[in-house]
Amino acid sequence: MATGKYPYLAVMTFNELGLSEAILRAVTEHGYTTPTPIQMQAIPAVLAGGDLLAGAQTGTGKTAGFTLPILHRLSTSVNAPNGTTAQRPIRTLILTPTRELAAQVEESVRTYGKYVKLTSTVIFGGVGINPQIKLLKHGVDILVATPGRLLDHMQQGTVNLNHVEILVLDEADRMLDMGFIRDIKRILAVLPKKRQNLLFSATFSDEIKALADGLLNSPAMIEVARRNSTVEIIAQKIHPVDRDRKHPLLAHLIKTNQWSQVLVFTRTKHGANKLVDQLAKDDITGLAIHGNKSQSARTKALAEFKSGSLQVLVATDIAARGIDIDQLPHVVNYDLPNIPEDYVHRIGRTGRAGATGEAVSLVCVDEHGMLKDIERLIKRALPQEVIAGFEPDPNARAQPVQLRSGNGNGGRGGRPQTQGRSVAAKSATSPAAKPQGYARPRTGNSTAKPAAPHRSGGRGR
Ligand code: AMP
Q1: How far apart (Å, rounded) are the C-alpha atoms in residues 302 and 164?
Q2: For site-directed labelling of 113, which of 70, 161, 210, 241 has its Cα 20 to 30 A away?
């Protein structure tokens, strides 16, 4: 028998993976019945205790892929907490590129670890450091952190990483892309030499390969379905439209289709704010999340959106990284991303873990080059549909577009601001784990060399 969602893999249940009863109970309660392909491969590999190099992007179920076996190992090993009041050392460190992803990973740790006696906490910048110091002092088994704030704690001597048994680098490509490599190396330098290392990355650039070579010891290598096959379950459509008609078209689509939960991407923070104001005039409630928003505003917007009380969430690319909403029905590219890989990340917010979704892109004459780059990357032409009343002017001439504005994460690093490919994408020609699906075709109109990643001197740590 084959599973509906993953017909190419024999059916396997969570019970067959060797996880403890306490963990299985939490998984069942959470409503999972079948492990995803990355889980089928990663869980036994991590349980075996060796290092792991995994090619997986968000939306594949990778978080449970590493969280479940880590919880199993920590709760069943000889070092498992024995009920004494002695301070608990940090035994697992999970590093993520963004605050949102860190928060979500820690939430998963809590969900799946509901019935085991382990504690966890999350630390990231943009919020007060003192409550974090208090929690760390109390002791936690699993620490999820963004690199910048963790370094702050290391410098202040408020975190002790001497007992880390398992290290996870989640979305390692994104961390490098955002300029975190030096921070990561400084963190690695203080960890015990003997430990288990798990590296997850959606892409395999030379930089990732070098990091993996220095970090991993005879790793198990796994990869899940090609990036493109994730895209295939998502209905994608282009609506050609004039530049200054995008906002009325979006309002029209939301109203006539009665979309109740829409994630909208803009290229710039300014564009996100402006769109929220414009939608408000049409009685459509939206909030923006980007790097200039306080962490509490970002968290609040995300919580409202997830709960269904906020109709439209407008996000820039980096701020949206890690947004995980089950079965998000609609993603709109209000602007196309100038980095083609970001298109795949964006639409990966819908149709997650086998659910179907719809992604529409509003494309004006300025963005035809970007559209070509995206179609080349995903190896297919996207269907186009002109909406009546919004026909684009056939004589319109392209103008230069404003590209991404600065560091949208609020972390320490930034990404290149030139039109062109990301640093990671530039060198993604020699896969570490031979993940064939990750080699990318050359893009056509991107001859500009990316600038060195901008570092923002500790802003938002
Ligand atoms: P991730 O790739 O870890 O961000 O997970 C993507 C989404 O898939 C999340 O919404 C998870 O809750 C969901 N998910 C993870 N594992 C499973 C599973 N075995 N069955 C169904 N959904 C899952």
Answers
A1: 31
A2: 161
Residues 106 and 222 reside in one and the same domain = yes
Predicted pLDDT of residue 404: 57
**pTM of this prediction?**
0.63
353 Cα: distance to centroid of ligand 1 (angstroms): 5
Predicted local confidence at residue 432, as pLDDT = 32
As a whole number of angstroms, the distance between CA 372 and CA 284 comes to: 32
Q: Whose CA is nearest to atom 21 of ligand 1?
A: 32
Write out the H or E segment, with its range, that includes residue 368: helix 368-378
Ligand 1 atom closest to 27 (CA): 19
Examine residue 7 and state whether it is found in any structural domain, yes or no. no
Domain that includes residue 30, residue range: 14-227+442-455
Nearest atom (ligand 1) to Cα of 322: 4
Give me the count of residues in the chain: 461
Asked if residue 99 is part of any domain, the answer here is yes
- Return the best residue to mutate from 27, 30, 63, 67 for the ligand 1 pocket (most ligand atoms within 8 A of CB): 63
Choose which residue among 12, 15, 60 to substitute to test ligand 1 binding: the one with the highest number of ligand atoms within 8 A of its C-beta: 60
CA of 443 to the centre of ligand 1 (A): 31
**What span, in angstroms and rounded, lies between the C-alpha atoms of 17 and 21?**
11
Let me know if residue 394 belongs to a domain. yes
Query: Where does the pLDDT of residue 225 fall: very low under 50, low under 70, confident under 90, or very high at 90 and above?
Result: low
In this predicted structure, the answer to whether residue 116 has a pLDDT above a threshold of 60 is yes
Ligand 1 center from residue 36 Cα (angstroms) = 8
- 162 and 245 inside one domain: no
- Number of domains the chain is built from: 2
Q: Out of 26-35, 104-113, 221-230, 352-361, which region has the weakest mean confidence (pLDDT)?
A: 221-230
The token pair that represents 85 in the structure block: 């009041």
Any domain includes 8 = no
245 phi, psi to nearest 5 deg: -110, 5
173 and 287 share a domain?
no
100 Cα–ligand 1 center, Å: 16
Q: What is the mean pLDDT of residues 426-440?
A: 29
Co-location of 219 and 265 in the same domain:
no
